[in-house]
Amino acid sequence: MHILVSGGTGFIGSHTVVELLNNGCDVTVFDNLSNSKATVIDKIEKLTGKRPAFFKCDMNNKAGMNRVFSSAHFDAVIHFAGYKAVGESVEKPLMYYENNICGTLVLLDMMKKYGVENLIFSSSATVYGIPEKCPVTESSPLSTLNPYGRTKLMIEDILRDVASADKTFSTVLLRYFNPVGCHPSGLISEDPNGIPNNLMPRIIQAVRGQIPELTVFGDDYDTRDGTCIRDYIHVVDLAKGHVAALDYVTSHKGSVAINLGTGNGCTVLELLKSFERVNNLKVPYSIAGRREGDSPAVYADTSLAKELLGWTAGLGLDDMCRDAWKGACMNG
Ligand code: WQD
To answer: Which residues contact 45 (CB under 8 A, 6 or more apart)?
Structure first.
């Protein structure tokens, strides 16, 4: 199969391209490089011995997208491209709606024009908002707290509507929990432009002295140690979940949302202590007040992924902490 990967030089996209190539797929990547580097393509080739075709292209550039879709016939699209910083989305909502929503509409127009019927979408557990209870199932109530989360839910709704109207269309909406870690080689890793907001990159910045210390946002939640619980999942497990979803999306029609998590909840302090133990390091940190919009606990019910995709996460917290640190050290 030949797969088109939007945002394929990004964190999760690049790891998924590696797994696709290792599974015998042909791959074409397009990315506007707003939050990644073209050198990731060289690293993917080094890891797999195969070089995906690459186009530097923005989703909203129709001429560029016509060039991409004219370059080969694609059996499916895996759609990662999109802005993903929660805080930035609050400050610049129109930038997020134009890029994430309008860009996706252009992508869908191109798929229709060139006869591509299968789409895997990079959704997020953020569509669950602050869940009433855990583990979160795919039938849990949906609600969003910020423009970034609203773009994810809007795109899910758009894809459900397209699948309802067009019986030849097939889409799988993969709801990621908290992706961390990187390829065990350390060659490709989370390498965001600007200041990362997520916990693991901030732990690493604190250890490396790039920030004075990690700020732990709140230790007065109703959890076993007072800090928030999340479902951290190794990005390589996440990538393999996309390969598993490919078999499903090309052999079914309609739309389905599927959680990609480990099903295990882990507190902020538990992740921090694991990171210290595995890497034999100290993480300087202090406790501050709660961060607005944080949920006390979010972790996945993973039974549907097992049932429909035959996929479960195999890597644990120690793997995530070891690989994240190795990737950070190798990629400066
Ligand atoms: C995790 C926990 C923080 C930083 C977000 C997006 C979600 C998805 C994953 C894209 C929370 C605490 C964090 C810090 C801290 N991204 N924390 N100090 O908020 O669960 O999810 O990223 O799809 O859509 O919403 O992830 O890593 O920001 O926070 O104490 O410096 O770590 O309070 O409890 P989150 P996170």
So the answer is: 51, 52
Asked if residue 300 belongs to a domain, the reply is: no
pTM: 0.97
Orientation angle between helical segments 235-249 and 11-22, nearest 10 degrees: 60
Q: Which CATH number do you get for residue 123?
A: 3.40.50.720
Among the listed residues 56, 66, 177, 162, the one whose alpha carbon sits nearest the alpha carbon of residue 117: 162
User: Does any domain span residue 26?
Assistant: yes
Cβ-in-10-Å burial (0-12, 13-18, 19+) of 197 comes to middle
Split into its structural domains, the chain has a count of 1
**Nearest-angstrom CA–CA distance, 94 and 180:** 28
Averages of pLDDT over runs of 10 residues in the chain (332 residues) are 98 98 98 95 98 98 98 98 94 98 98 98 97 97 96 98 98 98 93 80 95 97 98 98 98 98 98 98 98 95 98 98 95 78
Distance of alpha carbon 190 from alpha carbon 202, whole angstroms: 12
> What is the structure's pLDDT at 190?
83
291 C-alpha vs ligand 1 centroid, how far in Å?
A: 9
The answer to whether the CB of 211 is under 6 A from ligand 1 is no
pLDDT score at 60: 98
**Strand runs (DSSP E) across 103-262, as ranges?**
118-124, 170-176, 178-180, 214-217, 229-230, 232-234, 254-260
- Residue 29, in any domain of the structure: yes
Domain that holds residue 77: 2-180+233-263
269 Cβ inside 6 Å of ligand 1: no
Cα of 230 to ligand 1 centre, how many Å?
8
Give the single-character DSSP code of 9: T
In a domain, 93, yes or no: yes
Protein residue with its CA nearest to atom 21 in ligand 1: 178
- pLDDT on residue 271: 98
User: 131 preceded by cis ω (within 30°)?
Assistant: no
Task: Report the b/e string of 56-82 with b at 16+ CB within 10 A.
Answer: ebbbbbeebbeebbeeeebbbbbbbbb
